Amino acid sequence: MSLSYMLWAMSNFDGQNFGLCGKTIGSLRRNVILWLKLMLKSRGYAVQDRRADNLLVVRRGEVVNYFYLFGGKDERSQDLIQGITLAGCLFDEVALMPRSFVEQAMARCSVEGSRYWFNCNPESPNHWFYTEWIKDDQSSKKNALHLHFTMDDNLTLSPKVRNRYERQYAGIFYDRFIRGEWSVASGAIYGSCFSGKNIRRDAAPYDRCFVSVDYGTQNPCVFHLIRARQKNGQHQHYVEKEYYYDGRHSQTGQKTDEQYSKDMRDFIGGEKIECIIVDPSAASLITQLRKDGWYVIPARNAVMQGISAVSVEFSNGDLLIDPSCKNTIREVSGYVWDEKAREHGEDKPVKVDDHTCDALRYGVYTDVRRHPIGFKTNTYRG
Q1: Local structure of residue 202 (DSSP, 8 states)
Q2: pTM of the model
Q3: pLDDT tens for residues 89-121?
Q4: Is 363 in contact with 279 (CB distance < 8 Å)?
Q5: φ and ψ at 278, to 5 degrees?
């Protein structure tokens, strides 16, 4: 799509400004620009990348056009694109961008013959982009061409890779990212993914062990001792035990970071752990744990990606919870989507009784990202 956009721009305009937009400039460069430059150069185009200006200057013969890179990560991003006049704009993963940014960029396309180019993975059917551009044949009403691709349209993927990708998603994420449907996230988050098969003791050997933490002062504080391994090309995790302290309902009241650090040492005991993964907002606890000699890393807090990773492991039977983890089992079973947020096109969990779910998500998703399939380690810190 990016190549088609560039060929269209270079065939129809000369000396004009264009936009190339991604969630962030970093993701845009990684996912689009790197490969786009190679494709253009192989077709005889000269590409000058002015990284300091986030600008690509593209030439072919006497024709030259200017392609500015923009990141649309939040509402403030619209300020960065104000004022410029564009002859066209490409939005990579438009559903991840705020509406204000997209509409501001569209308003910049005032050159005669300008066009908008969008691509995205599906989100909620209440998402503004779906309701404005796709639902009820909106694309035809807006004189837009709507192309629906699925994984089967990607001819570079072997059957083995396609099968692996299909196993990477479950539930709502399977409907969206494999079937390409703008599906509703409603009811129980883990739904049919989580069942009795995920609740059992596991004495099998694991490659490594770590602790995952959801930090709370007014809310409960949770520790999970999680064992991890890779088997048959899959990540597998086992939540062996939990620590759950709710200061609001305890006679001893709230605990300090020093007290939580002491509890952590008692919780780990003589276990050799690789690291402690902590809620990234818990700066004071991270500082205290590091002061006390632990190797601590902030958790990756991408909520939807984390929920997807946990869903897949639950669905495949690769994520087990020991029966002794009563609070974790209780909260995972009651973890639900926020219906009010859904009305505004957002997908997010209800923020009630979700503390063990957050700790579980932090641990599984961060570990999966830190140890890609094929990585092996028997190195522990502690």
Answers
A1: -
A2: 0.67
A3: 999 999 999 999 999 999 999 999 999 999 999
A4: no
A5: -120, 140
